UniProtKB/TrEMBL annotation:
Name of the protein: SGNH hydrolase-type esterase domain-containing protein
Segments forming a coiled coil: none
Source organism of the structure: Streptomyces clavifer
Annotated CDD domains: SEST_like
Keyword field contains Signal: yes
Domain SGNH hydrolase-type esterase: 39-248
A Pfam short name: Lipase_GDSL_2
N-terminal signal peptide: 1-25
Keywords: Signal
InterPro entries according to UniProt: SEST-like (IPR037460), SGNH_hydro (IPR013830), SGNH_hydro_sf (IPR036514)
Amino acid sequence: MPLTRSAGAALLALALASVAVPASASSTAAAADDVHYVALGDSYASGTGAGSYSDVACTRSRNAYPALWAGANDPASFSFAACGGAKIPDVVSSQVGELDQDTTLVSLSIGGNDSGFASTMLSCQYSTQSACERALATAGEYVVNELPGELDSLYATVRARAPHAEVVVVGYPHLYKEGGLCIGGLGSAKRTAVNRGSDLLNATIAGRAAAAGFTFVDGRPAFAGHEICTSDAWISGTNVHPTAEGHESGYLPAFGAAVSGN
């Protein structure tokens, strides 16, 4: 089924209906000595691009928001399973095994790689506007028609393995500032198209998270004003991933505000 204007609008409505989490909220809390925290997901959770890696193969960074939250809150246990490049099947096969009956908190960021993030960005960075838009349209069809069912299945697995956990699903930021010049970056039309693709992806994730009874953290307001092409970017223009500052000042406060009791 092709992506339709009405389908896109419906998904965006889901995103707008989700609870917004203020990026300025405090990320620290009293010692969480009864919290058993597991961090799942892809490179946006593992901290690719944030440096100070504890696991180079998975680009797990000590500067990533899961590690920062654990360091600030001292949970009873912390398992950092997120891995750069992960797709939904990888989370199922290699990450959810960290969950159990004792898990009380789960963070999860996934879906970008499944929708072809890397190849789409290459098309937009190095090909024409029309090629960029075709790549985004192909990704959009997957996001509308296939990703919802795959997320439903994953979320059901997470809930089954961690029945008592609070699950926080973390979305993706807009990558680019829209409008104006971006020296050495994408043209204005491409930047807008990429951000619209992010809107559709986030809307799908937000909708399925809500259906599963999970909390959705929107990465777009968390990084607003700090996208690529801004004067204080928290996303690297080289690898299009959050920097260490992006994790500390963007994702961490938003995640911390979403966790019960913060």
